[in-house]
Every structure is written in C-alpha cells, then in structure tokens.
C-alpha cells in the first residue's frame, strides 16, 4: 500500500505524471500498482536554499520495503523520475521514506496486520 506525496512549487506537471509516478513507485518498491496512491500538490509557495527556483518535497510511505539498503535504490529511481519529469535539479528536493507499521494501516475495512 505505497503512498507517494509530492509538494512542489512547479505549477504544471505532465498529463501522464500521476500514472508514470505510480509505475515508478510500484516498480521500485516491488508492490502491485493497484495499491499505489500518488498525490501531487503543484504551485505551492516553497523555497529551497532561500531561492524560489523549482523545488519539491517527496514523501514515500510503505508497509515494508523501506530500509537502508532498499532506500538507496528507491532514492536513485525516484530522483531520476522527478528530475526528468518535473525538471527539478536533484539538489533541489528531498525524498523522505517512512516504513509504516502494518498494525497502523487499514484498507478495505481491515488492518493490514490481520
């Protein structure tokens, strides 16, 4: 049940951005795309390094598949996608990973840990 939230000061994203982002998240985490949820918030008032050049914060949360070694590959895949798709330099955004406890996530009226 991967989640990806992107906040950026970029005003417009490509029409296929959400679908392509879903694919990248599913592939890098090894999770079915049918469970991936992506949210992008554009045109945010943001600064990075005290400038208004394009920047972002990318949050990726998943129940499992988040660890030091796995995150190295996730970071490469996600960074490449954001840079290529949104034109944001790789030194203008952070990627934050969160490993969700299965007992703290519900889907279809049940807790994932059940």
From TrEMBL:
Signal peptide: none
Keyword Transport: no
GO MF: cytokine activity; dopachrome isomerase activity; phenylpyruvate tautomerase activity
KW Electron transport (keyword) present: no
Catalytic activities: L-dopachrome = 5,6-dihydroxyindole-2-carboxylate; 3-phenylpyruvate = enol-phenylpyruvate
Enzyme superclass (EC): isomerase
This protein's name: L-dopachrome isomerase
Origin species: Dimorphilus gyrociliatus
